[in-house]
Amino acid sequence: DDAKAYARWLSRKTGKEYRLPSESEWEYAARASTTTARYWGDDPDSACGYSNVHDRTSKTENNFHWANHECDDGYAQTAPVGRFQANRFGPHDMLGNVWEWTEDCLNDSYSGAPTNGRAWTTGKCNRHVVRGGSWGGQPRNLRSAIRIGDGTGDRYYNNGFRIARTL
């Protein structure tokens, strides 16, 4: 709800239309024409050059006991935007750092999903899809296809958002 309110405020302030991206727009931007699990390839331990992840530093400082990436990105929690290498389309931080809200209502599968890139506005609309994984997640959860649902009023230290501008 807060992310959508911000997009509405920015739209009023600038006179341009801002919004949360649809889930399919988000994945298109995250994949950047790749077919691998991550836009830099399939190896999760190469993540530290491209993303803020649960790495050796995070494991030590946060005392998390689940699997970590076998690399060091220099951050135990969130990192400043743009610190890591962008994907080939230009966006930074598409995977890791924070889960990113999308406009789509949560659905358990893609059966019946829009095929035109628009947001899916039916389903479990008290929950929305978040994408990309975060700085505290396991390597298996840091990939372009990862998706979970969070309640629209939920606030977590590892959630964030990116906005899209309608042209």
Q: What are the main properties of this structure?
A:
4-stranded mixed sheet; single chain; alpha+beta; two-stranded antiparallel ribbon; 6 strands; globular
What's the helix count?
A: 3
Can you give the mean pLDDT? 96
Distance between the termini: 23 Å
Fraction of residues in H or I helices: 10-25%
Largest sheet: 4 strands, mixed
Q: Determine the structural class based on helices, strands and strand pairing.
A: alpha+beta
Concise summary:
The protein has 167 residues and is an alpha+beta fold. The chain contains three helices and six strands; from the N terminus they run H-E-H-H-E-E-E-E-E.
Describe the structure.
The protein is α+β, with helices and mostly antiparallel strands and 167 residues long. It is built from three helices and six strands; from the N terminus they run αβααβββββ. It is globular, with a radius of gyration of 16 Å. The mean pLDDT is 96.
Give the secondary structure arrangement, pairings included:
Blueprint: H1 2-14, E1 18-19, H2 23-31, H3 56-62, E2 99-106, E3 124-131, E4 147-151, E5 159-160, E6 164-165
Parallel strand pairs: 2-5
Antiparallel strand pairs: 1-6, 2-3, 3-4
